Amino acid sequence: MTTKTKTIIYSHGNVTDVGAMHFMQVIIAKGLQCNDVIMYDYSGYGESGGVPLEGNMYADIETVYD
Prior knowledge:
This protein is α+β, with helices and mostly antiparallel strands. Helices cover 33% and strands 12% of the residues. The chain contains 2 helices and 2 strands, in the order βαβα. The protein has helices at 22-31, 54-65; strands at residues 7-10, 36-39. It has a two-stranded parallel ribbon with strand order 1-2. The longest helix has 12 residues, at 54-65.
Protein backbone atom coordinates (compact mmCIF):
# COMPACT_ATOMS: atom_id res chain seq x y z
CA MET A 1 0.00 0.00 0.00
CA THR A 2 1.32 3.44 -0.96
CA THR A 3 1.19 6.19 1.63
CA LYS A 4 -0.21 9.43 0.25
CA THR A 5 1.89 12.32 1.49
CA LYS A 6 1.15 15.17 -0.92
CA THR A 7 -1.12 18.10 -0.19
CA ILE A 8 -1.96 20.52 -2.99
CA ILE A 9 -3.17 24.09 -2.57
CA TYR A 10 -5.20 24.90 -5.68
CA SER A 11 -6.08 28.49 -6.59
CA HIS A 12 -8.97 28.29 -9.05
CA GLY A 13 -9.57 30.65 -11.95
CA ASN A 14 -11.48 33.89 -11.61
CA VAL A 15 -14.74 32.74 -13.24
CA THR A 16 -15.66 30.05 -10.74
CA ASP A 17 -15.76 29.19 -7.05
CA VAL A 18 -14.91 26.16 -4.95
CA GLY A 19 -18.44 24.80 -5.14
CA ALA A 20 -18.18 24.49 -8.91
CA MET A 21 -14.68 23.00 -8.70
CA HIS A 22 -15.42 19.93 -6.58
CA PHE A 23 -15.13 17.62 -9.59
CA MET A 24 -11.65 19.03 -10.30
CA GLN A 25 -10.63 18.45 -6.70
CA VAL A 26 -11.53 14.77 -7.00
CA ILE A 27 -9.71 14.38 -10.34
CA ILE A 28 -6.55 16.04 -8.99
CA ALA A 29 -6.56 14.00 -5.77
CA LYS A 30 -6.99 10.68 -7.56
CA GLY A 31 -4.73 11.48 -10.51
CA LEU A 32 -1.83 12.70 -8.39
CA GLN A 33 -2.48 10.27 -5.54
CA CYS A 34 -2.44 12.94 -2.88
CA ASN A 35 -4.12 12.94 0.48
CA ASP A 36 -5.60 16.45 0.23
CA VAL A 37 -6.44 19.08 -2.34
CA ILE A 38 -7.25 22.37 -0.66
CA MET A 39 -9.29 24.84 -2.70
CA TYR A 40 -10.40 28.18 -1.39
CA ASP A 41 -12.21 31.29 -2.60
CA TYR A 42 -9.77 34.15 -2.55
CA SER A 43 -10.76 37.73 -1.77
CA GLY A 44 -13.61 39.00 -3.90
CA TYR A 45 -14.72 35.58 -5.20
CA GLY A 46 -17.31 33.05 -4.09
CA GLU A 47 -18.20 33.32 -0.43
CA SER A 48 -15.01 35.03 0.71
CA GLY A 49 -16.00 38.68 0.60
CA GLY A 50 -13.25 41.24 0.38
CA VAL A 51 -11.76 42.94 -2.65
CA PRO A 52 -10.03 41.07 -5.50
CA LEU A 53 -6.65 42.78 -5.36
CA GLU A 54 -3.28 41.16 -6.07
CA GLY A 55 -1.97 41.84 -2.57
CA ASN A 56 -5.09 40.32 -1.02
CA MET A 57 -4.64 37.20 -3.14
CA TYR A 58 -1.08 36.70 -1.86
CA ALA A 59 -2.30 37.15 1.72
CA ASP A 60 -5.08 34.59 1.10
CA ILE A 61 -2.60 32.03 -0.23
CA GLU A 62 -0.29 32.53 2.78
CA THR A 63 -3.25 32.13 5.14
CA VAL A 64 -4.28 28.85 3.51
CA TYR A 65 -0.68 27.60 3.60
CA ASP A 66 -0.27 28.45 7.27
